[in-house]
Amino acid sequence: MAPKFHVLVIGGGIGGFACAVGLARKGHAVTVLERSASLQTWGGGLLISSNALRVIESYGLLGRFQEVAEKWERHVIFRYDGGVLDVLSNAANEKVFGYEMLNVRRQVYQRVLYEGAVEQGVKVRFGCRVEKIDDSEKGPSVMLSTGETLLADLIVGADGIKSTTRPFILGGRDVKLQPNSTCYQCTIPASLMLSSPLTAPLINERAIHSWWGPNTHWICGRKSNGQSYDAAFFIHPTASSPLPASHVSASNSHDPGKGKDNDRRGDVREVIDGVQTHGYEERVQAFAKMIPHENCTLWKVAQLPDLPTWVSESGRIVLLGDAAHAMSPHLGQGAAMTIEDGGVLSECLARASSLDDIPRAVKVYEEIQKGRTEKVKRAAGVSGVWKTMADGPEQRKRDEGFRKRMESGEKYEFWRASGHLAWIYGWDSKLEVGKELDRVFPVGKGIGQRARI
Ligand SMILES: Cc1cc2nc3c(=O)[nH]c(=O)nc-3n(C[C@H](O)[C@H](O)[C@H](O)COP(=O)(O)OP(=O)(O)OC[C@H]3O[C@@H](n4cnc5c(N)ncnc54)[C@H](O)[C@@H]3O)c2cc1C
User: Fold this and answer.
1) Is residue 329 part of a domain?
2) Which of 34, 148, 223, 234 is the pocket-test mutation for ligand 1 (most atoms within 8 Å of CB)?
3) Residue span of the structural domain in which 20 resides
4) pLDDT of 215-256, one tens digit each?
5) Residue 40 · residue 254 · CB < 8 Å
6) Ligand 1: which residue has its CA nearest to atom 3?
7) Sign of the dihedral through C-alpha 150, 152, 157, 158
């Protein structure tokens, strides 16, 4: 069967590949243009919650993700001094939402989606940097750094927080990124963790461990079936301790062509200083000193302000993922939202039967996802503040809330979020989109002009 539309996806990150799978499954001819020469080979663990897993399941990829995920049973949240604040259960997650939350390394997440895309017939071109975007009478097009021009029926800008597509959509002027925190993602080999009675129990347990301290927090857990312990340390700026100038220019994605941005090495001394200054308990002090220098990656975490629009004037160029709504990772939702975006966009575009229908389909995608992702972004910000409270009356109130809830049995979310995360995890995008599309864009009511492919 001839493909319906020709779609160019700029960016082969999690968002680009996931969206390519969804679109290809609906019969579109999809090409992904990725500036890096190959797939990413580094990065820490990402959590995949049920809202994203529902989309992944609809792509036939759930089993593969379950195979490569690091098994965990509980998520223990400690105070920085070692007291237990809460214990979350993955079984509770499954009971309430139908899926265990998965813990997968970034590069594995991307690779599974890439393989899924290739199997669906998606063409992936590595080493292709998009330099310019155009949107003329003839339709949207991109120009690569080589000078090659490619035309499409629809262009999806899945090109990350420092998107090339976004300024084009915003009429040539980009928004300013909002720096949030600095994250040091570290990998400690099992041999080191097992060498100390303080740290060995941490890697032996099938668990995620968080420590929440003043202006800082950790999220850690074993990886590669116990071969290593991955530990991410976040430092949030304060009035008296702002982000170092070198950490302000946010760079959440890898740019092989840009010298400075490419320097992602974190300084382990800053991690050790951070845990000592903030008085972390002895287990954290111990594993921080074990981090090999070559295993510490620096992430400059930032978020985007809400954008006026995600869609170009013609309705044929659209943003997705971090390019549209980069958020702080304090609810573990950035990638999950990009997965949702791709699922929703694929469903919407499936209702378009001609080129003239595309702008309307894309608009429905924007209507569904923009408000939702902005709300999640705000919740992630609140969660970051919550995790990093300085000792004082607010923190005592928070801890008292945790203490009361400790007695209330198995739960999937930490106390502050109680009753509030169901709107994120419980979301079934296919169902929600179906309702909206039936209203705005009934089946069989396309305008009926032949697609250009
Ligand atoms: C420390 C940290 C922890 C996180 N933890 C979680 C978590 O637990 N759960 C979760 O869901 N999310 C998490 N996130 C968020 C998640 O990593 C991002 O939201 C997600 O990776 C965004 O994917 P993306 O594809 O939109 O962007 P990116 O991953 O940035 O991909 C964009 C791609 O576009 C390419 N590109 C850019 N410009 C061009 C161009 N001009 N031409 C061609 N290609 C181009 C880039 O090379 C890149 O491959 C975390 C983020 C951080 C920083």
Assistant:
1) yes
2) 34
3) 6-70+101-176+306-385+417-440
4) 999 999 998 888 999 999 999 987 677 666 665 554 444 554
5) yes
6) 329
7) negative
Binding-site residues, ligand 1, Cβ < 6 A: 10-16, 33-36, 46-47, 128-130, 158-160, 164, 183, 185, 232, 252-254, 299, 301, 321-322, 329, 332-336, 338
Q: Which percentage of the chain shows pLDDT scores above 70? A: 91
Q: Tokens 């993955």 map to which residue?
A: 90
Domain assignment of residue 209, yes or no: no
Asked if residues 215 and 236 have their Cβ atoms less than 8 Å apart, the reply is: yes
Is 150 within a domain?
A: yes
Instruction: Confirm whether 142 is domain-assigned.
Output: yes
Atom 19 (ligand 1) nearest CA: 334
Query: In this predicted structure, what is the pLDDT of residue 444?
Result: 57
pLDDT tens digits, residue range 59-118?
A: 999 999 999 999 999 999 999 999 999 999 999 999 999 999 999 999 999 999 999 999
Half-sphere exposure of 375 (CA within 13 A, CB side): 9
How many domains does one find in the chain?
Answer: 1
| 31 or 432, greater pLDDT | 31
Identify the weakest region by mean pLDDT among 150-164, 184-198, 257-271, 430-444.
257-271
CA distance 128 to 132: 12
Using the predicted structure, report yes or no on whether residue 13 has a pLDDT greater than 80. Answer: yes
Residue 49's nearest CA partner among 412, 441, 451 is: 412
Alpha-carbon distances of 7 from 19, 26, 95, 143, 345, rounded to whole Å: 10, 12, 38, 15, 12
Which H/E stretch holds residue 30?
strand 29-34
CB 185 within 8 A of CB 357: no
